[in-house]
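Hey, quick one: can you model this chain's 3D structure?
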Amino acid sequence: MAEKLDKKAAIKTAGKLDKKSVNKTSGKSDNKGSNNKITKGVITTDKLDKAEIKRIFDVFDYNGNGILSLAEIDKAVIEIYPHLAEDKPAIMRAYKAADTSQDGFIDFKEFGRLIDLLHYYNNLFQIFKKLDIDNDRRINFNEFKKGYELMGINVNSPKELKSKFDEIDTNRGGYILFDEFCTHAAKVKLISEIPQD
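Sure thing. Here's the predicted structure for all 197 residues.
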């Protein structure tokens, strides 16, 4: 089941994005008034050279101070990755995971990881939304029972299923929150194309 999700996510994402589309021009102007060349739709930065990554970083860095705040990341995601813009929990999770220095900002060294994680967490959030039938941004046990296979879970009894739900619900709130879902997904390598935290 997880392999099907990986392939579906890759096909769906590839249809919207082109990893090679590094020279598209956005309507955004830099401080000097010239058009920036930005990479729309970069899924991963592993095949880009440092200059291309820097160019993308500069588009994100609206105030030009060399570090990215959450507000700058949010604004750039809306412009460059509009399909990710509505998935705020995925953006927040990627931002926190990419901030390895834990200073509240993303610097250039952390930026490539941010791009990778934005797409990774967006893919996880799409699975999470399928499970979250009532759209309250949490998965109750009834929702879990209807779609636990999407989480890479294979159980043989209702008792095992409840035990698995309780294991994932680490705060014991009676719901699986997106952060708890992501922790489980990393453990079982639910989506393996993008490096996980």
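One thing worth noting: Residues 1-39 have pLDDT under 50 and may be disordered.
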